[in-house]
Design goal:
The complex is a heterodimer. Chain A is an all-alpha fold. Helices cover about 75% and strands about 0% of the residues of chain A. Chain A has 15 helices and no strands. In chain A, helix 4 runs antiparallel to helix 11. The chains are: A mainly alpha, B mainly alpha. At the A-B interface, helix 1, helix 4, helix 5, helix 6 and helix 8 of A face helix 1, helix 2, helix 5, helix 6 and helix 7 of B.
């Protein structure tokens, strides 16, 4: 198709995109209105730029604290998953040991089971450890992932064996080969898994609701939920809060779009 | 795969080095299994403690009842009997399938977006993709806030827009007869971008020659789409619909966030998972909730089997 005839495609895509983005536009617009402006009908299209809404969310909830909790939870889960999953994935992909396939399939069976079967015992473990309303409790179960292991194993299997052979001839052991040869080569796979895990972790709601009921120990998702649950109706402030809570992940997505798309395409390719 | 083959060929060519390598390998292989176990140990321990063993525990719990102090007594099948007798569960199951099934309506939209974004020579592709993808990456807690405001009966943008064309809107998520569909719409909005990405990957794998051959046979673009694109896209359509139904079965965040206690539509809109959450963690009925989870697992597995059986009828693998 010649470029001159692409305008209908652009038109349809642009109209669709506008429809997709309208809710966000409304969120931003509302966050800049005074409370009275937000309840006026017909709507106020040019707000009085009430920036104080963005400050007020810090008074309404321990927003900064929750932001920190979210960062720690996300970083903890993601780093742990990258380490544990890639370590095991390399062994499953390249090393030979008795029971390898049986163990691998047993681990993958986790993917077939609905998450609700894990939750009650997971809660009991966290409770037993005295980790309710703590950051470790928030992080712990999310540090391990069958999906991540599967993804990294598939990735390692596509890498050429020659480099490893060379390192082996130089007398390097499996751990050394994994760390200094394979991990650098697996960077694209690690980034894709990392972005997926960050996204899932940052937005996770159910587990935080279960283990951390103290607002000071909640991540942002549960914190926002608690605010809305208290029947707070100051929507301009709520919109400012929800915007600040989701903005970091949106920025990350824009920067690392390629890796995220690759990760998702992987979930669709098997 | 092909990299491994190249390695094999190379090895066969350099026979002298092969023998030396083998000898070294054998020396290493003696300890290779040790390294293997050591490297999988942290993961196996973590998944075992937090995921595998809990499945067995949950199945056991489903046959027990819990006191306030956390003592469990064996009650046999009583939880299951109560579970099947409770109309709230039947309704939740029905809703769950409605959410999952109706969300499939978004698939044609996603295919359309993907097909348009795959137009050859199109510029601004990543710009559009970013916009369509924004709802996918936005925190559900934020999504719920945005939409509860859009759907608001008195001050919502949706009712304002409807009033422009003379329609009197309702309080969409507090009205039992509209609430479920309102959530389906939000669900589709959050999935379009995700599914479009999977369809774009599927479209890329269709070889150009097929289109060229179809064009030589006189097929126009529309005919090409239905005769070449759609059949070859069927594995992706299959994957996305399986995912859609399974995600439907797992529906929780939006239900929890939008249908709080006091919302008149709450009773009408619960899903299996949201009901599970209420029973297990708000009412403390852990044995009963475990039985719900077991039933959900059976349903999920049965559905997966059915879907894989069905795919033989309409999925073409190239």
């Amino acid at each position: 198709m010649r470029n001159g005839r692409l305008w209908p495609v652009h038109l349809v895509l642009a109209v669709g995109a506008a429809a997709m983005v309208t809710p966000f536009f409304w969120q931003v617009l509302t966050s800049l209105k005074t409370f009275t402006e937000s309840t006026r009908m017909p709507p106020v299209w040019i707000p009085s730029f009430e920036w104080s809404n963005y400050a007020e969310i810090f008074d309404e909830s321990p927003f900064l604290r929750q932001f920190g909790n979210t960062v720690v939870m996300t970083a903890g889960r993601t780093l742990a998953q990258l380490l544990f999953c890639s370590l095991a994935a390399y062994a499953f992909a390249r090393l030979r040991f008795p029971g390898r396939n049986v163990v691998f399939i047993a681990l993958l069976s986790v993917l077939m089971v609905p998450g609700q079967l894990f939750l009650i015992p997971q809660y009991q473990i966290i409770q037993g450890l005295g980790w309710l309303n703590t950051l470790p409790g928030l992080i712990a179960p999310g540090m391990f992932s069958a999906f991540g292991t599967f993804m990294m194993r598939q990735f390692f299997m596509t890498l050429p064996r020659e480099v490893e052979e060379a390192a082996r001839l130089d007398g390097a052991g499996p751990l050394r080969i994994f760390w200094s040869v394979m991990l650098p080569l697996a960077r694209p796979g690690l980034l894709a898994l990392g972005v997926l895990t960050v996204l899932w972790s940052w937005n996770d709601l159910m587990w935080p609701l279960i283990v951390n009921t103290d607002p000071e120990q909640m991540p942002l998702s549960a914190g926002l939920s608690a605010l809305q649950g208290e029947h707070m109706t100051d929507y301009p402030v709520l919109m400012a809060g929800s915007l600040m809570a989701s903005a970091p992940i949106v920025v990350l997505f824009v920067i690392m779009q390629r890796q995220l798309i690759q990760g998702i395409a992987f979930t669709g390719s098997k | 795969m092909s990299a491994g083959e190249v390695g094999t060929v190379e090895r066969a060519a350099v026979t002298g080095r092969v023998a030396a390598r083998r000898a070294r390998r054998r020396g290493l292989r003696d300890r290779e299994w040790l390294w293997g176990y050591a490297m999988i140990a942290p993961l196996v321990l973590g998944l075992g403690v937090f995921y595998l063993w809990p499945v067995a525990q949950s199945v056991y719990y489903s046959f027990t009842e819990w006191t306030l102090f956390g003592d469990a007594t064996w009650v046999g099948l009583r939880n299951y009997e109560r579970l099947f007798a409770d109309p709230a569960n039947a309704k939740a199951l029905k809703n769950t399938f409605l959410y999952g099934g109706l969300s499939l309506l978004g698939i044609p939209l996603s295919i359309g977006v993907a097909a348009l974004l795959s137009t050859r020579g199109l510029k601004l592709v990543s710009f559009y993709r970013t916009l369509y993808f924004l709802p996918v990456v936005t925190m559900p807690a934020a999504v719920a806030m945005i939409w509860s405001w859009l759907y608001n009966g008195d001050y919502g943008l949706i009712n304002y827009l409807l009033s422009l064309v003379g329609i009197r809107g309702t309080s969409w998520i507090a009205n039992p007869s509209t609430a479920l569909y309102a959530i389906v719409a939000v669900g589709i909005w959050t999935q379009i971008g995700y599914n479009a990405v999977i369809f774009m990957a599927g479209l890329q794998s269709i070889p150009d020659q097929l289109y060229e051959a179809a064009a030589l046979d006189g097929a126009g673009r529309v005919r090409q789409f239905f005769k070449v694109t759609l059949p070859l896209l069927s594995p992706s359509v299959f994957f996305v619909s399986v995912l859609g139904v399974i995600n439907g079965l797992q529906m929780f965040d939006l239900i929890y966030l939008l249908f709080r206690r006091g919302n008149p539509a709450r009773e009408e809109t619960q899903t299996v998972v949201s009901l599970f959450f209420t029973r297990a963690f708000e009412e403390g009925a852990k044995g009963y909730a475990a039985a719900m989870a077991v039933v959900l697992m059976v349903i999920t597995l049965a559905l997966t089997v059915v879907q894989f059986r069905m795919q033989k009828r309409w999925v073409h693998y190239a």
